[in-house]
Fold:
Amino acid sequence: MMQQVESAKIKNIIFDFGNVLLNIDEQRSFDKLNELLDAEKCKDLDEIVIHPFERGEFSEEAFFNRLQRRSKKVLNGDLYYEAWNAMLQDFPANRIRFLQELRGRFKIFILSNTNITHLRNVKRRIKIDHNIDDFDSYFDKCYYSHLIHMRKPEKRIYEFVLEDSNIKADETLFIDDKQENLVPAKELGIYTYCHSPSEDISEVFSRIIF
Structure:
């Protein structure tokens, strides 16, 4: 059963980015990386490489060097770049209109586990597809993990967003496609909704908030 929230209670909406607003297919990147990387060298890939990169703990160059060192054999650097970006898809025009409509009713935010490479490529595509130079201006504030050096589901990231944006937990709805990212938010008193990427957030939103 879909969790619903009374609209009178909500003043702020925090959106995850990928698979909520932006279409992504993480499996495409995983498959391409699996073709390049040695599985025996990748048992700690998330903890040692991907998650620290999403916290901005090392540079883009260092990230791709770490991938290359875990290869079955050393290959052209462009192959790792292409594999890492393979998950990125489109940002549909109807969701741009959806965000514009929400701005008159709520404060809206992004809270995303991302990295410098993905964010640069996504914003470039949004500019090409929608002629938008400043995507972040569609939100009251955007919290990207690599810029604030925290990532979901660390509890401190939700505490930081509430304090930095000066919003109250019990007036806020957080929408994410991963249940594990919702648990700490809910513990802080934030309303949560687990979004299915198979649905369009602009179409289901009116059924979440009534």
